[in-house]
Amino acid sequence: MRASVSFAALCAVASFGCEGPSALAQEVTLVSETPAVQANAVQLVIRSDLMDRDYRIEVTPPFRGPVFPGQKAAVVYALDGGWGVAGPAGSLLGGGGAMLPAYIVTIGYPQGQRNSREQDLLPRPVRRQDGSMAQGGRSSLFIRFLTEELRPFIEARYPVDPQRSVLFGHSLGGVFTANVLADQPTAFSGYLIASPSVWADPSVIDRLRNTVAGLDRRVFVAYGEREDDYMVEGGRVLSNALGNRDGQVQTQVFAGAYHITYYPAVMGEALPFLLPRQSPLTFPVAVDLSETQLSAHSGRFLVGGVVPVDFDAQDGGLTAIVPGGGRLPLKASSPTRFFAPGLDVQAEFASDGQSVAMFVNGDRIDATRAR
Questions:
Q1: CB atoms within 10 A of CB 28
Q2: Alpha carbon 156 to chain centroid, angstroms
Q3: Which residues contact 19 (CB under 8 A, 6 or more apart)?
Q4: What is the pTM of this model?
Q5: Is residue 20 pLDDT above 80, yes or no?
Q6: Considering only CA atoms, which of 331, 320, 326, 327 is closest in space to residue 365?
Q7: What is the C-alpha separation between 42 and 328, in angstroms, rounded?
Q8: 342 pairs with which residues across the strands?
Q9: Mean pLDDT along residues 1-18
Q10: Could you report the per-residue pLDDT of 61-76, keeping only the tens digit for each?
């Protein structure tokens, strides 16, 4: 169920996000587009000029969409193809109200083409614990692919908010994500660093210490209790380097978990912290109000003192009318609270009738009655 109501004019004042692709954006070529295995998801193969290769991108939309044209949703970029579970898990977490609804974008490699994971995620070749060499060397270019090619492509194609974007990396992807935080901390609004392979790039620790002071980005660090000792130590040292920073950093050690076994669970712990809702998801029950009670909420309210939202009493409820046309029917759940059936939309009027708080997909939008 989707309302044909335009909230485009609200995005500048209601934290919906209105920034377009960066002026530095490079173009990528869409090679193919097919349905993904998961329902409603799509699989894209895109060609990166910077990396001179193709990438497989899966996009899973939020279970509960942006409701209004012009509204934008959060977005999570998951490396290593999200190990096949990031998309479904993120959709369920958003749909269930644990976090803001978000598009989940996973980055992997097309079947039948070479996997350049080590080259993409590590800044230089490095010897593994078993003595073999990991062929790193292109991570700085891969960061540019993410920020200059992939993100502008996604932001032009889907209603995602660049100011609410999370980078999620595990293992080599974890140390890569830590490097992005250290070197380009404002590239994303949140960082999920899982089982970071600090052994592959110990220099990231000092760079993080020098970067994070005063940083307003949320970071979630995780690792498994039963991982190899050097992996546990890497997670611990990285977490210590970040410090607490007034609740902006959260670390969780998953009891009894090995290197990959906690991967599905970490999303349920991390994403609500990185993309918190401003209001809980509820399922109200409609009640009947008198015409007098409904009429008390009729009138024009202004978002940010500028953008009008009109409420009309009709058909036993209220109808919200926003710029651009369209009407959104609301049912009462109490004398001051209203909801849109089937949507994550509520409105709560102040007892004096002079203001209304609207809650749309976990976002709060305040408006005051026009004089």
A1: 23
A2: 16
A3: 155, 162, 163
A4: 0.84
A5: no
A6: 320
A7: 29
A8: none
A9: 38
A10: 998 665 565 678 999 9
Query: What is the tens place of the pLDDT at every residue in 143-194?
Result: 999 999 999 999 999 999 999 999 999 999 999 999 999 999 999 999 999 9
3-state helix, strand, coil in the chain (%, to 5): 25, 30, 45
Angle subtended at Cα 173 by Cα 167 and Cα 175, rounded to the nearest 5 degrees: 95
d(CA 155, CA 305): 28
CA 150, CA 55: separation in Å to the nearest integer? 10
Three-class SS of residue 95? helix
Distance CA 283, CA 285 (A): 7
Q: How far apart are CA 302 and CA 99, in angstroms?
A: 27
At residue 13, what are phi and psi to the nearest 5 degrees? -120, -5
List pLDDT tens digits, range 203-238.
Answer: 999 999 988 877 889 999 999 999 999 999 999 999
d(CA 311, CA 369): 10
Does residue 16 surpass a pLDDT of 50? no
| Amino acid (1-letter code) at residue 151 | R
Cβ burial of 285 (10 Å; 0-12, 13-18, 19+) is exposed
SS (H, E, C) 170-193: ECHHHHHHHHHHHHCHHHCCEEEE
Q: For residues 44 and 59, give the distance between their C-alpha atoms in angstroms, rounded to a whole number.
A: 8
